[in-house]
Amino acid sequence: MISRYRDRTVKENIQLGALTAFSAGMVNVISVIIFFAFTSNVTGHYAILAQEISHGNWYQALVVFGWIGLFFLGNFTSNLIVINFKKEKAYLAHSIPIVLEIICLLVVGTYIQFYYKETLLETELMVSAMLFAMGIQNGLTATISNSAVKTTHLTGLTTDLGILASLFTKKENRENPHLRNKWKLLLTIMTSYLAGGISAGYIYLTIAYNVFYIVCIFLVIVIGYDFYRLKMNSLLQRKQPYYRKIIKRQAPQLSNP
Amino acid sequence: MKSTYLYLTIFTLVVVVYFTLLSFQKTPSDSILGEWKEVSWEYEKLDSTRKADSSFDYMITDHIKDQISQNLIIHKAETWKFTEDETVEMQGSDSKKCFHWTLKGRGNILQIDGSDLMEHYEIQELSADRMILHFNFDMQVRGIVKMTFEKINT
């Protein structure tokens, strides 16, 4: 899912998109429920920033500017890690940003559970941490999938879906595998994001702040899945000479019936 | 190496300027402190059927106000006193109630916490002498009520 940068398959992108979009949808809904602020759609924050500036509410404008800045910083950080560590170990470079995201979400979840006094400063800081986490996630998925997967960018995704739907009115486009795969990927991301949001809303009613830990589990699956595959591959490669010997030994018997 | 310094300089500058500007601003939590007197209740937004009627009075009468707020924490509250310990004292002509208050979002949501009820009001304006709150209702007509307050002491 995250170990490969080049020659990525559609399946890998769909898996990555589905899991990360589901997490983003959960985080966004939970932040609206608890903090009354979105944490994965920055377009809305730009509109709010403009509105607050026009009303002369400079404190609120600065807070929103800070939130946008942290989303930017999240994207910057994840890409910085990827481009600096990619040459040595691609898997490590791609998993560090997810580990950072998990840490951010764990800090938010734990703080809310044990220390949150519902002050405005706390709310602003928690939203900041979540926007940073979402920036990291969006930056990472966009980088490793060559911008094919953007899990928090639903404006662009809906635009692409609209364009694709119109392209599919022509038969040659409907038969184009590249366009069909793109449609599948975008639809998966959209559905996962929505499903994440809906389930967060339902889950929150019963397990409250523990939703953050569930999001972290999804992110651990993203890292763990590739770790398992890489480990299995290396084990198989190590054992290959042994298998070759067995095949060689068996080969004469097979050729001489 | 040169670009690293450039990035670090820009980052430090942005952070310093940002927090300097922020330190000069009064937070909504500070601005809301004090005693506020309710001066008007108006319909801010209504369903289109009522809008078509040009003679429709947007001011809410005491009778309608009483009906809308009947099940709300703010029922019969005429003055709201916000204190630093996050307590809001609501005083009416013949009643006095205390609740916990807090601000959410970017300081645009006022949360009032009763013993078994929690209500949220959207702060549309919060200046030194005026506060405007909005809340959704569906009593008789669906719409948004605009509550205007004036500060009576600072």
Task: Describe this structure as you would to a colleague.
The complex is a heterodimer of chains A (257) and B (154). Chain A has a single domain, classed as Growth Hormone, Chain: A (Up-down Bundle). Chain A is built from nine helices and no strands. Chain A has helices at residues 10-35, 42-55, 58-85, 90-114, 120-144, 154-167, 171-174, 177-207, 211-255. The radius of gyration of chain A is 22 Å and the shape is globular. Chain B has helices at residues 2-24, 28-31, 48-51, 62-68, and strands spanning 34-46, 79-82, 87-91, 96-104, 109-113, 118-126, 130-137, 143-153. Chain B starts with a helix and ends with a strand. Chain B is elongated, with a radius of gyration of 20 Å. In chain B, strand 4 and strand 5 form a beta hairpin. The A-B interface holds A 35-37, 48, 52, 55, 58-60, 62-66, 69, 118-121, 123-124 and B 14, 18, 21-22, 25-29, 102-109, 111, 120, 125.
Assigned CATH architecture of chain B: Beta Barrel
Total DSSP helices of chain B: 4
Number of strands of chain A: 0
Identify the biggest protein-protein contact and residues per side: A-B, 21 and 20 residues
CATH topology name of chain B, in short, is Lipocalin
* Biggest sheet descriptor of chain A: none
Oligomer: heterodimer
C-alpha end-to-end distance of chain B: 54 Å
Mean pLDDT of chain A, to the nearest integer, reads: 86
Radius of gyration of chain B: 20 Å
Report strand % of chain B: 35-45%
Shape of chain A: globular
Instruction: Summarize the main sheet of chain B.
Output: 8 strands, antiparallel, barrel
The count of helical stretches of chain A stands at 9
Q: What is the annotated CATH architecture of chain A?
A: Up-down Bundle
Overall pLDDT level of chain B? 84
The structure class of chain A reads mainly alpha
